[in-house]
Amino acid sequence: MTILPCNQCFMWNEHSSFLFGSYVSSFSKFQVFTKKLESSKVHVKSLSSLHSAIGCAEEAGEILGLFKKETFYGKPIDKDELIEELGDLFHYMSRLMYNYELSLTDIIQANVNKLVIRFPNGYSDKDAIARADKGEK
């Protein structure tokens, strides 16, 4: 995949291909961009969030399908296809985060906090089953 430079944050070229500018590293600008792509049918927060959650499930299923084909049919993972599906998943996740005013930092920090409690000495099956962060035994 080639990343093309542009002078604006986001723009469409004559072939309707999305161009990535230097602002692609700014997650908040990506969130605003994805919000602009939202259908007018889902202008209510609850409908927007439901649409985004369904989109996450759908895209995760498409990613799972790539690995099913690799595992059971011997078809190698196409990296460009994986990037496309992960991008679609990220798009829907971004919209959910926008709707609930969550930052990428909030989510990453919460996940790190959970995993440090769950796996204090690195991964182990025992710790995975115990789930110390959930108080399970």
What can you see in these coordinates?
- The chain is mainly α and 137 residues long.
- It has two domains: 26-35 and 43-102; 103-137, no CATH class.
- Helices cover 59% and strands 4% of the residues.
- It has five helices and two strands; from the N terminus they run ββααααα.
- Strands 1-2 form a two-stranded antiparallel ribbon.
- Strand 1 (10-12) and strand 2 (18-20) form a beta hairpin.
- Helix 1 packs across helix 3 (79-99) and helix 2 runs antiparallel to helix 3 (79-99).
Elements, N to C (H/E):
EEHHHHH
Lateral arrangement of strands in the main beta sheet: 1-2
How many distinct helices?
A: 5
**Would you tell me the structural class of the helices and strands?**
mainly alpha
Largest sheet: 2 strands, antiparallel
Radius of gyration: 18 Å
Oligomer: single chain
Total number of domains: 2
Terminal CA distance: 45 Å
Low-confidence stretches: 1-24
Task: Work out the strand percent.
Answer: under 5%
Task: Please bin the fraction of helical residues.
Answer: 55-70%
Overall number of strands: 2
Tell me, what's the shape?
Answer: globular
Average pLDDT reading: 80
Short description:
The chain is 59% helix and 4% strand. The chain is mainly α and 137 residues long. The protein has 2 domains: 26-35 and 43-102; 103-137, no CATH class.
From the structure above, extract its key features:
137 residues, mainly alpha, 2 domains, 2 strands, disordered N terminus
Describe the SSE topology.
Layout: E1 10-12, E2 18-20, H1 27-36, H2 45-73, H3 79-99, H4 104-118, H5 125-130
Antiparallel strand pairs: 1-2
